[in-house]
Write a structure and sequence with these properties.
With 375 residues, the protein is mainly alpha-helical. It contains 15 helices and four strands. It folds into two domains: 232 residues, no CATH class; 107 residues, abc type-2 transporter like fold (3-Layer(aba) Sandwich). Helix 4 links the parallel strand 1 and strand 2. The longest helix has 32 residues. The relative contact order is 0.11.
């Protein structure tokens, strides 16, 4: 490494150190993203507020309520005296579901014709779909237990045998913990968002402060100026990646099943795309605000179309086609597979090739546009 390049890198580190806002963004924002997304952005639905209208008030109805109470999905929050009161509670959002037990529940249960009503608030489809599945499963299990007890009391020695038994097995994430899905995604978001935003302001900041003229009159070559600008942000971004990876593993318990060295190499490859986007934005912007807005135009599609929050397979065909032009899409497939499944890049070679193509194209376009002169 020659002295000119070393001087540029040293100068960039000094500027970062003297800018407390940049340091705050680099060091604190990734941790905030990790904890906010790790805890708040979850698909796990638990303790759904449940309103109860028990018109039977019998041992049989209380046994049914106990089945819902012991389940982790529902929390019996209200006991109402009429359907009107239940409707008001559900309409106000205090309860997301309601269970109505008719007066003749105990008698009909003995006859084998008992029915209950389960009301759901469909304004939140995620909670409603989970409540619907949980309510049906809990009810079926309770009915099976009643049938088994009835046969046992009959003394006929018969056994309850279900014609078809479905035995399910969940691989890689048996407890279906959302953090296992979100934390690798946060690593991708940190690398793509912070790297692009910090790099986008690197060249523009020199122009705004008037220091670009001093660089122009020096013998520094264009590639040396580019590399010198990018190296500090590359190191900081890799530090952020390791920071989020360590906290996700030790705090949230996210496993790292794959090779850590491979994770770092793939992350560095993806990092090149973020650096290229930021550098390209800095070459077409006249000030830092324009550079940041340009980066945000690329970040928003990345957040929503990469599979970070929503499955790509559930999107319309047109948006699925657009998602192929987003590097984060391929990185998320790789990082989640390597961390959770222990799969190596050799299995997902098509995603690796896509990242290489994006890195080369984006960085080449940014480098060709960059010129060591005043616009």
């Amino acid at each position: 490494m020659n002295s000119r390049l070393t001087s540029i890198i040293r100068k960039e580190f000094i500027q970062i150190w003297r800018d407390p806002r940049t340091l705050m963004i680099v060091l604190v924002i990734p941790i905030l993203q990790l904890f906010l997304l790790g805890y708040a952005a979850t698909n796990d639905v638990r303790n759904i507020p449940l309103a109860i209208y028990d018109q039977s008030n019998s041992p049989e109805s209380r046994a049914l309520l106990e089945s819902y109470r012991v389940a982790d999905y529902f929390k019996v929050a209200f006991a109402v005296d009429s359907e009107t009161e239940m409707r008001q509670i559900v309409e106000s959002g205090q309860a997301k579901a309601g269970l109505i037990i008719p007066p003749d529940y105990a008698r009909r249960l003995k006859d084998g014709t008992a029915q209950v009503a389960f009301v759901l608030d469909g304004s939140d489809p995620t909670v409603a779909s989970t409540s619907l599945s949980a309510a049906q499963l809990i009810g079926q299990r309770h009915a099976t237990n009643i049938l088994a007890e009835k046969i046992a009391r009959s003394g006929q020695g018969l056994s309850v045998r279900i014609p078809v038994e479905i035995r399910t097995t969940v691989w890689f994430n048996p407890d279906l913990v959302s953090a296992y899905f979100m934390i690798p995604g946060v690593i991708g978001m940190v690398l793509s968002s912070l790297t692009a935003m910090l790099t986008a302001t690197a060249v523009v900041r020199e122009r705004e402060r008037g220091t670009i003229e001093q660089l122009i009159v020096t013998p520094i070559r264009s590639w040396e100026l580019i590399v010198g600008k990018l190296v500090p942000y590359t190191l900081l971004s890799m530090f952020n990646m390791l920071e989020v990876l360590a906290l996700g593993h030790w705090w949230f318990g996210v496993p790292i099943q794959g090779n850590l060295a491979q994770v770092i190499v793939i992350s560095a490859l993806f990092l090149i795309s973020g650096l290229g986007i930021g550098l390209f934005a800095s070459t077409i912007a006249n000030n830092q605000q324009e550079a940041m807005l340009t980066v945000w135009m690329t970040l928003l599609p990345s957040i929503f179309l990469s599979g970070f929050f929503f499955p790509i397979s559930a999107m319309p065909a047109a948006l699925q086609a657009v998602s192929y032009a987003i590097p984060l899409r391929y990185y998320l497939v790789l990082i989640r597979a390597m961390m959770i499944k222990g799969v190596g890049p050799n299995v997902l070679w098509s995603e690796v090739v896509s990242l290489v193509i994006f890195a080369v194209v984006i960085m080449t376009a940014a480098t060709l546009r960059f010129k060591k002169r005043l616009d």
